[in-house]
Amino acid sequence: MSRTDDELQGITRLGDRHTVYDYDYNPGVLETFPNKHPENEYLVTFNCPEFTTLCPKTGQPDFGKIIINYIPRERMVESKSLKLYLFSFRNHGDFHEDCVNIIMKDLVRLMDPRYLEVTGIFTPRGGISIYPFANYGDPDHQDMVRQRLLASFRNS
C-alpha cells in the first residue's frame, strides 16, 4: 500500500537535496504525514544520540541523547523534519529540562498523539548528569502517563 501524492503533499524536506539547517530553534520545520493505521495503537521511537544545545548562562555547548516515544493518532512526524528541528536547538540557550519540555509540547501540538514522552540523557557537566523526562497522554492514556513517570524514577 504505497503513499499517494495527496498523503505526501506536506512533506517538503524529505528528498530535498539542498537542505538548509536552521541553527536557531525553529519548530516551523516540523512536518507530518497521515497515519495509515490510526485504528492500531503502536509505538514509534526516535533516538537522537547527538543532540546539542547551549547553556543559557555560560553559552557552553551541552551534549546529550534525546529519545522520543509516541503512540500516533491521525498524524505522524516526518523523521527528516524532526532531525532538522532537533538540530535547530544547536544555538538555543536553555536548560536540559526546558529543552525536553519544549520538544514534548511542540510534538504534542503538531501531532495530537495518544501518548508521547521525551527523555534527555545529557553528558555530565561538572560531574553531574541530568536525565529529564516529560510525557503527555490523552484522557485514555492518563494511567500510562503516571506509570511511565513513576518508572522513570525507578530507572534513574
If you had to describe this structure to a student in words, what would you say it looks like?
By secondary structure, the protein is α+β, with helices and mostly antiparallel strands. It has a single domain (33-154), classed as GTP cyclohydrolase I, C-terminal domain/NADPH-dependent 7-cyano-7-deazaguanine reductase, N-terminal domain (GTP Cyclohydrolase I, domain 2). 24% of the residues lie in helices and 26% in strands. The protein has helices spanning 79-87, 96-111, 142-154; strands at residues 32-34, 44-54, 61-71, 75-77, 115-122, 133-137. A four-stranded antiparallel β-sheet has the order 2-3-5-6, sandwiched between helices. The chain is flat. The termini are far apart. The model has no long low-confidence stretch (mean pLDDT 91).
List the helices and strands and how they pair.
Layout: E1 32-34, E2 44-54, E3 61-71, E4 75-77, H1 79-87, H2 96-111, E5 115-122, E6 133-137, H3 142-154
Antiparallel strand pairs: 1-4, 2-3, 3-5, 5-6
Low-confidence stretches: none
CATH class category name: Alpha Beta
CATH superfamily heading: GTP cyclohydrolase I, C-terminal domain/NADPH-dependent 7-cyano-7-deazaguanine reductase, N-terminal domain
Largest sheet features: 4 strands, antiparallel
* Shape by Cα distribution: flat
* Gyration radius from CA atoms, angstroms: 16 Å
Number of helices: 3
> How big a fraction of the residues is strand?
25-35%
Looking at CATH, which topology would you report? Answer: GTP Cyclohydrolase I, domain 2
